[in-house]
Amino acid sequence: MTPKVSISQIRKNLVSGTTTCQKIVQDFINRIEEKKKINAFLEVFHESALNKAKEIDEKIKNSLPVGKLAGAVIAIKDNICYKDHKVSASSKILGTFSSLYNSTVVERLLKEDAIIIGRTNCDEFAMGSSNENSAFGNVLNPHDTSRVPGGSSGGSTAAVAANLCHAALGSDTGGSIRQPASFCGVVGLKPTYGLVSRWGLIAYASSFDQIGPLTHTVEDAELLLDIISGSDEYDSTCVA
User: Fold this and answer.
1) Maximum Cα–Cα distance for the chain, whole Å?
2) What tens digit of pLDDT does each residue of 9-27 get?
3) Catalytic annotation present for 134
4) pLDDT at position 2, please?
5) Which of 90, 122, 156, 217 is a Cys-bridge partner for 168, taking CB atoms 3.0 to 4.6 Å apart?
């Protein structure tokens, strides 16, 4: 089982040679399969995640600089666009749609060598608070599968709580990060409006929507927020 460690510690372990990105990713892929009953993931990006892991391992092997998120395995809610990967907002209407571009948050994660492992289940079009409204089945609370994980970012939250990734991104309109975080016992943060770009987020109520982190620790939430926040030419509401 992959232990729960901070993102900063993961990076240190990689640089010291204690582990490799490819091993970390494969361990998570195996664990996601073991825990598939909770239905946190709609899709695991096996190929692209392992390719990114190999790329980072090669950088480290050749003593090249790596990003702040090197080795961090991150899941994204199924309403956040990732180029050439499916994004459906947990709706059959968009069931076969693949994104043509990266959302700003995904672009910033990849730039810092994060590994995006898959897209997580959510209430359809992010409209719900229990994650029982997905077209692809309910998400279960990993601590007690007879209970809901909260929503609409229940898949991202359950994935972190079940240790299926190091961290995840969700979206919050009226509590959709904060409420499931409290249900599942993880750190969830809704950033102040305008702090994080909404470019590439399938909108629910765009004047309220915000993308934010779900993590094991406050330290990790701070690190992710620092990376994904800031002005963006594609979102005029984003602050400098």
Assistant:
1) 48
2) 998 899 899 999 999 999 9
3) no
4) 56
5) 156
